[in-house]
Amino acid sequence: MSPSETLCLGRLIITLIQNNYSISKTVGLWVTLDESTRPDVVIYYIHGGGFSMGSSYFYLEFLLAWLTILRQSGYHNPAIFALEYTLVPDSRYPTQLDQTLTGYNHICHITKDPSRICLAGDSAGATLQLSLLLYLSKIPHSVSEQHKKPGFATLISPWVTLVTPKNRNTASDYLNADSLHLYGRQYAGNPSNLKIPLVSPGVCKDREWWLRASPSGGFAFMYGSEEVFGPEVRDLIALLRRSGCAVRVREEPGQIHAWPVVSLFLGEGSGERTKGLRDLTKMIRGVIEPDGHGRGLVDGVADAVV
Question: What's the CA gap between 279 and 273, in Å, rounded?
C-alpha cells in the first residue's frame, strides 16, 4: 500500500488538552485507526522548524504514512499524537516544554502504560523530546505514575545544542548555522537560559542524569552524514553510550538534515519516500512488541474534540 492510500486508514481527531501548567491550552492531532480500542503503540511526535515555524498539519502525510507502516509491521492499533506547540515569538521557553509535558501526560492517560509510548520528533521537536526526558528524570517517582519513562525514543536530526561553534554549515545541507543560532536565542529568551539543559540538552554532560533520563528501551538516532547538526549528534550519542544507555544509530551517508521527512515529500517512488519511516519502525519493533489481540477499551481518547 502506498503512502497516498493512507488517508482512508486513519481517523484524524483534533484534541485540546487543558494545560495544568499555564492558562493556555495544549493542542495536538490524534491519528488512530480505532479510537475505541487502546493503542498497542503510540508515537508522540513533535515537529521541527526552529521553534518558530512549522505545524503538525504540514506533517500530516508523513504521519499517515507512518501509521500505515506501523500497521503493516504488525501493530494491532497504532496511534500517533502530534503536538501543535506555540511558536516563537508568540511564546518562548518554558511554554513549549510545558506543552510537551502536558501532551505526554495526555498520552499516558490514554495508554495506561508508558512503555507503549515512543517519543519522536525532528530537529527542534527532537530537542523538546530530549528536554522532556531530562525533566521527567528529575521528578520523584512517587509524585505521579504518569511520570514513568516512555518505552523508546526515536530522534530525527535532533538540535542537540542550540548555540555552539560545532553547528557548522556544510556544502550539502540546507540549514544555515547563523540563522539557527538566532532561532535558538529567540527560543531561550534570556541568554543565560542557553546554559540550562532543559533548554539546550547538549550542555548536559552529567552521565548519571542521562542514564536516568533514558527511556526504558533506549534511544534511536537517525540523521544525515552531511548535516549541520552532525558533530553535536555524534557527541551526544557517544556520551549516552558512555553513560550506559542503549543507543541505536542510523547515520545515512550523503544525506542532509531530517532526511526521513524530506524524502517522504521529495523522494522518487514509494521505496525511497518511505525508507526512513520503515527503518524507524524496525527500530521501534525491536523494543515495543505489537499486541495483536488488542488492549481493551479506551476510557476517553480526547478531553475535547473539535
Answer: 12
Mean residue pLDDT of the chain comes to 87
pTM for the predicted model, two decimal places: 0.89
CA-to-CA separations, 230 to 3, 88, 174, 223, 224, in angstroms, rounded: 29, 25, 13, 7, 7
Q: Which residue, among 52, 47, 46, 48, has the nearest Cα to 183 in the 3D structure?
A: 52
Q: Strand runs (DSSP E) across the chain, as ranges?
A: 11-18, 25-32, 41-46, 78-84, 117-122, 152-156, 219-224, 247-252
C-alpha cell, 54: 512549522
Distances from the Cα of 207 to the Cα of 189, 203, 238, 241, angstroms:
27, 12, 11, 9
Pull the grid cell for residue 70. 506501523
**pLDDT 10s digits, 63-73:** 999 999 999 99
Alpha carbon distances (Å) from 23 to 85, 100, 188, 217 = 14, 15, 20, 34
Task: Please choose, from the candidates 157, 147, 86, 150, the residue with its C-alpha nearest in 3D space to the C-alpha of residue 119.
Answer: 150
Give the integer Cα–Cα distance in Å for 241 and 304: 41
- Prior bond to 89 cis, omega within 30? yes
- Identify whether the C-beta of residue 14 lies closer than 8 Å to the C-beta of residue 54: no
Collapsed DSSP state (helix, strand, coil) of residue 98 = helix
